[in-house]
Structures are given as structure tokens and as C-alpha cells.
């Protein structure tokens, strides 16, 4: 393995790598904006369907929104992963450090592609091209070969970068969706001293999940909808068996 000195033109290499990463980040930002616009429109339709008590349409829109928000999270995670990598590259002082960062980048991109392929297939091609461009930069810049003893450490770093980005994306989406959670208040229905529960449908469950950042809090749901806990559990179990919801 060659030492970690400054081989080649370090500023030029960093600039080329940064440009390649920034180009993919711009594409991700554009896709995210389009998905968010679609999300706003679907949610508007969901509100109309809910107010019209059209449970079939509301259920369809709720499922579409849940899938769309999962796509947004995946795209945003990919964006934040590249942003973290770009910031790490800015601190590189030697060609060897660039090489190590690029190796972590390649591993992180592999993690991204696995998710993106299922959610937004067209973006996977962009990441494959990015990897190809980075490999070409490495080949043409005489970046030192990485010691195999360091590979496992960099694998861990790549996974850590991706997981941190995923957590940040999830947290920011929860914050963004918080204002939606109380859009449709449900007034408890009681008569005299006898506890009376409201009937619960799959649409109610999907709507709650959609408006609470894909999280289901059974205690809050029962309180909000004045629902019987055992009934809710049965509905959840049925939906889980039918593949309409997935518990994680």
C-alpha cells in the first residue's frame, strides 16, 4: 500500500468528486420535491373523501399516501447520505483519506441502491452512474490502494452514515407531518353512564397511520376515535394478515 501523502492534485480530485456527488443530490432534490407535491395533492383528496364519508376513496388515497411517504423517506435518506459523505470529503487532507472516503461512499451507495431500486427504480441508474464516475476518478487520480485491514472499519462507517441519514430523514418527516395529526378531530360518543364505542374501519386505521408519520399508537387511536381496544386489535391483526399493514 502506498503512503498517505499528497499524490496528484488533491484540490482537483476533491472538486471532481464533489461535483459528481452534487449532481446526484440535485436529482434527488428534484424527485423529492415532485413527490412532496404529489403528497399534498393526495392528502387534499383524502380530506375531501373523508369529509364526504367516502370510505372507499379515502382508503385508496390513504394507502397511496403511505406508499408515497415511504418513497419520500427513501429519497431523502439517499440525499442526506450523500450530503454527509460530501462533508466528510471536504475535510480530507490526503489522497489516502479521499480513497478511504470514496470506498465508504461506494458501500453507502450500495445500501442506497438496494432501497431505491424498489421505491424509485429510475434513481438507481443515477447511483450506478455515480459509482462508475467515482471509480473513474479513482483510477485516473492515482489514489493509493486501501489496506485490506481497514476495509471492515470503512464498511461499518458506510453503514453508520446511512443509518444516521435514515434516522434524520425519519425524524424530519415526523416533524413535518405533526401538524396533520389533528386535522380531523373525532369527538367521543357516550350516552349516560354506559360506555359506547364508535365502529372502527380499516380506513380509520390507514388514515390514522398516514396522518401520524406511519406510526400507530393504539392507546392514542382508541382515545381519539373512542374505539374499543380489543376491536382495534382484531382489525389490526386482520389487516396484517392481508398484507395491508406491516408491523416493525
Could you write a compact summary of the structure shown?
This protein is 73% helix and 0% strand.
What can you tell me about this protein's structure?
With 248 residues, the protein is mainly α. It folds into two domains: 10-180, Up-down Bundle (Ferritin); 182-248, Winged helix-like DNA-binding domain superfamily/Winged helix DNA-binding domain (Arc Repressor Mutant, subunit A), CATH 1.10.10. 73% of the residues lie in helices and 0% in strands. The chain contains eight helices and no strands. It has helices spanning 10-51, 55-90, 95-119, 121-140, 151-177, 202-211, 218-225, 229-241. Helix 2 packs antiparallel against helix 3 (95-119), helix 2 (55-90) crosses helix 5 (151-177) and helix 3 (95-119) packs across helix 5 (151-177).
Helix and strand layout, with pairings?
Elements lengths: L9 H42 L3 H36 L4 H25 L1 H20 L10 H27 L24 H10 L6 H8 L3 H13 L7
Give the domain tally: 2
Judged by helices, strands and strand pairing, the structural class is mainly alpha
What count of helical segments does DSSP give?
8
- CATH third-tier fold name of the largest domain: Ferritin
- What fraction strand? under 5%
Beginning-to-end CA distance, first to last residue: 44 Å
Mean pLDDT: 76
Oligomer state equals: single chain
Q: How many beta-strand runs?
A: 0
Q: Which residue ranges are poorly predicted, with pLDDT under 50 across at least 5 consecutive positions? A: 1-8, 181-195
Helix/strand order, N-terminal first: HHHHHHHH
| Radius of gyration from the alpha-carbon trace, in angstroms | 24 Å
Main beta sheet strand tally, sense and closure: none
